[in-house]
Amino acid sequence: MGPIRGLRKRKRPADKKAEKCSASSSSPEEKVTDDWWRDFSSRITGPLSLSRETEKFESVFKISRRTFDYICSLVKEDLMARPSSFTCTDGRVLSVNDQVAVALRRLSSGESLLSIGVSFGMNQSMVSQITWRFVEAMEECGLHHLRCLSLD
């Protein structure tokens, strides 16, 4: 018998979407935080003027930059402790800031998984998984910020 038809796998050309995702967190934390926002904001809203940077950040995430950094510091250990295969379309691993941004954007906007995925350059399943992991991490690490009302 001859070879089975269509058995060979074809190599697909690599996608040239390097600008879809920010750089991984291999550089110092302060530099990653500053560069991260500029890269991220240019991906979803285009280039920003430096004077409007803070306003734009708050309009996208509905929280201040300081609060965002605090949330990232709360969930960083938990998100990094569990192995994940969250990668950008160009193959780089998503940083903690990227994961927090995806989850906060999904939770604050109420937009569909598809529209969030399109704006971040990922599929809707990944958006769902990232959001779920973020919520679990916040339950574990940020529970001390929640208080039940007392009847007194």
From TrEMBL:
Q: Which domain of life is it from?
A: Eukaryota
Region (Disordered), start-end ranges? 1-33
Q: Where is the composition biased (Basic residues)?
A: 1-14
| Protein's name in the database | Transposase
Q: Which organism is it from?
A: Acorus calamus
Q: What is the lineage of its organism?
A: Eukaryota, Viridiplantae, Streptophyta, Embryophyta, Tracheophyta
